[in-house]
Structure formats: C-alpha cells, structure tokens
Design brief:
Helix content: under 10%
CATH topology of the domain at 128-251: Jelly Rolls
Number of helices: 0
Radius of gyration: 32 Å
Order of helices and strands: EEEEEEEEEEEEEEEEEEE
Strand content: 35-45%
Largest sheet: 5 strands, antiparallel
Shape: rod-shaped
CATH architecture of the domain at 128-251: Sandwich
Structural class: mainly beta
Distance between the termini: 52 Å
Length: 253
C-alpha cells in the first residue's frame, strides 16, 4: 500500500491500494496510472478532475466533479446510477450510444426538439409512416360496401394515426340523406364503430361532384407489426364513385 501525506506529485503509478492523507497537488499534465487493471481508486472526499480521465474501477463517496471546463470523461463500460440517486446534466451533452432509462425520467428544463431537418429513423420516437392515393387514381367503390383506400404497416409501438378520404362522383345518383363514411381500422375493408369513424350526408343529386371526410388522430398501440387501413364507403344508385386520400402515423413511444 502506498501512503501520501500532503505531497506535491508530478507522475505516479498506483499498483496497489493508495491513500492520500491530505490534499495532494498534481502538476499540469500529470498522469495517474493504475498499473494493475484490477486496482481501484477510492476517494472519500471531493474529487475534481479537469482533463481527460480513464478509470478501470473507481469508488467515490464524496462530491465528484469530472472534466471541469474542456476536459472529457469517457465511460467505456456499463454505468449505473443507484436507486434513489440523481444523474444531473447541467449543460448540453451528447450520448454516442444508447441511453437506457428503466425508471421515470423528469426533465425540469424541458426537452429540446430536433432541429437538424432530417426525418426520425425507424424505431425512434417521431418516426412517420404514411401512404397516399392521388386524385388521378381513385379506388372504385361499390354502393354500400366499405373498401380500403390505402394502408400502412406499423411496427410494434404506440402510434397516433390520422387521415382523410376524398370522394369523387361521376354522374352519381344519390337519394336524400345518403350516408358516406370513412375511418381508420386494423380490420380490412371495415368502417370502425368505436367512435373514431366519420360520416357525411348528401342530398338527392345526379351530378358529378367531390366530397371529403377528415379523420382526426387515433391512437393505435400494437405489440407486433400490424396493417392499418384507411377505409371509405359511399351509397349511390347510379353513376360511379371513387375514393382517394392519405393516412399518416407518427410514433409517440
């Protein structure tokens, strides 16, 4: 065991248990090397490190400040914050790998939005999956029969899904109070009945016209890859009716 009492140190190699009795002073550029990878550095008072620091094993029971100013701290292994303890970041920090938080996370300063201009990658919060059918390629409808306008495939996660269905009628004959409907569903060619469906009522006409139904956000939470359908339905007795539109989902978890 090495024992230092009020020493002024330049470079030293610690190959066993080392105790500093009083506050030592290290010259600028000093290197403290742990010769044995199994050697641990145990500090019972305040520790302040201003340069780049690499520790194989460190025990700190007092206040510790790493890399004050322009220094750097690199954590090459798993780092655990004990239960009931707080990890505080007081300025902008970058995590190059994956940061895993298993408990509740409190952001007292708010979460800064991404400003880089690129889309979120697959599997990340903010990811968008969408599909659209253009006005020139409508899906032909059969009266009173729901049909898929388009669909998207959502991977496991919590999603907010919205969409719109546009109808284009060509010399269509509708009776008074004809009901046209649209919805977002995980069941193919089926208007949902959970309250998220929307409908429009058309008066008697034999004209060519267009109509639209906007669908507000709907939460869809799935544990495996699931197809979500944008569905439209129209009631008419003559002529032709087609449907086009778009559906989009954003991952929130």
């Amino acid at each position: 065991m090495s024992l230092f009492r009020g020493e002024h140190l330049v470079d030293c190699v610690l190959d066993g248990n080392t105790v500093f009795i009083t506050n030592p002073t290290f010259d600028a550029g000093t290197t403290i090397a742990l010769a044995n990878p199994a050697t641990s550095l145990s500090v019972t008072g305040a520790l302040s490190v201003g340069g780049a620091t690499t520790l194989n094993s460190a025990s700190q029971t007092g206040a510790a400040t790493f890399a004050t100013g322009t220094g750097a701290v690199t954590l090459n292994g798993n780092t655990t914050v004990a239960t009931g303890k707080t990890l505080a970041v007081t300025s902008n920090e970058t995590v190059g790998g994956t940061l895993v938080v298993t408990g509740a996370t409190t952001l007292t300063g708010g979460e800064v939005g991404y400003t880089g201009g690129s889309a979120a990658s697959a599997g990340y919060v903010g990811e968008v999956i969408s599909s659209a059918v253009a006005v020139g390629s409508p899906v032909s409808l059969t009266t009173g029969t729901p049909a898929n306008v388009t669909s998207i495939s959502l991977t496991a996660g919590d999603w907010l899904v919205s969409g719109n269905v546009n109808f284009t009628a060509s010399s269509a004959t509708t009776t008074n109070a004809s009901l046209w409907a649209a919805g977002i569903n995980t069941v193919t060619a089926t208007i949902p009945t959970d309250g998220t469906e929307c409908s429009a009522v058309y008066a008697t006409t034999t004209a060519s016209f267009k109509g639209s139904i906007a669908l507000s956000q709907k939460q869809i939470n799935v544990s495996s890859t699931t197809t979500v359908y944008l569905v439209g339905e129209a009631t008419f007795s003559a002529g032709a009716v087609g449907a086009y539109g778009s559906i989009a989902a954003r991952r929130v978890r």
